[in-house]
Amino acid sequence: MTPTSSHSAVRLALTMCIAEVLSMTGFAAYTALLPMIQREWALSNSAAGLISGVYFAGYMTAVPVLTSLTDRIDSRRVYLWACVISSIGALGFALFAEGLWSALFFQFLIGFGLGGTYMPGLKTLTDHLEGSAQSRATAFYTASFGIGSSVSIGVCGKLGAVFGWPSAFVFGVIGPLLAAALVNLAMPRGITHPEHHTPAALLDFRPVLKSRATLAYIIGYAAHNYELFGQRSWMVAFLVFSASLQPAESPMLWSAATLAAVINMLGPVMSVSGNEMAIRFGRQRVIFTFMTLSGLTACFLGFTAALPWIAVFFIMCLHYGLMLGDSAALTSGAIASAPPGLRGASMAIYSLIGFSAAFLAPLVFGVVLDLAGGNRSVAAWGFAFASIGIFGALAPLARRLYGKKFTPPA
Prior knowledge:
The chain is mainly alpha-helical. The chain has a single domain (about 10-190, about 205-405), classed as Up-down Bundle (Growth Hormone, Chain: A). Helices cover about 80% and strands about 0% of the residues. It is built from 19 helices and no strands. Helix 8 crosses helix 16 (about 325-335) and helix 11 (about 210-245) packs antiparallel against helix 16. The longest helix is centred in the middle third of the chain and has 33 residues, at about 130-165.
């Protein structure tokens, strides 16, 4: 790989960040409109959580194959077809979804599309960068996930409120097609497997899992995603519940979807800031600090629902910011520690295990919510949020055990 100038690095990073935001227009269409769709289809909390979670099942199905393929073929081709599948899923949801089973199918397709864009897009970017430029580009790219989710929540929420929920999924059709065109026209060809390395079988992840440093980041990413996507999937519904508890004389200034979009905008700032802190103070210290604080905050977040809405909003901002503080540090660490010639495979298993946790979290959250009293109970929301914060709260214990075995490169 030839060195890339700082100007070119900025251009490449900006191109992929814009593409990532465009590819995610349908990402939060269901999440932003969950209360509306749940009422219309008379879904239980468990069923509603399952629809949220199946998105990540689609992602998990796609990512091991499609990301590993980027070690063998041009990653732009993978990105193109994944965007097409995502658009088909969004169009199908808008036109044909009418209950649990049809929604599960089309959400699966939308999630499958993300599985072929997020990590393959990151490999398209990092293949052309090295050192600190690679780490910083990774931070901005992972931060663009937060921007994409904010845009999706905000725009889909507005479209759904004004034109009905199917219109939000139409928005999810357009963005991925624009992203595919941008990546295939503006990005250089992806770098395939170097000639002096013999690639392992496509789905043979054993060489990656034998790298103890990489494995540590994979486990950390799973804990991170479990908390993050559990919160993201139920954020709007929780804000709607909190609003229903407010006195009549203190109406919310913004809708729940708008508040959620604003909260999500903290993600890019905290992700980039956390990565800079990791470069300066060490990844291990920064990752475990943010993970512990976000987990502890989640364990009491749900119990605050009856507080004044502005207090609930700021506590959710605090929690979300803490959750994203270790995001880029985890991903850049996984890339830096990947075995030679296996970056695509490393990113595949990293993302597969991470999003396996993301699949489980919304479902577990909904089940706990049902079992603890339903979505009209403050205590039930408290226990549901605690169910996703528990792993972060246990991070100090994990750090102690982890430190005795090995320490990955900073």
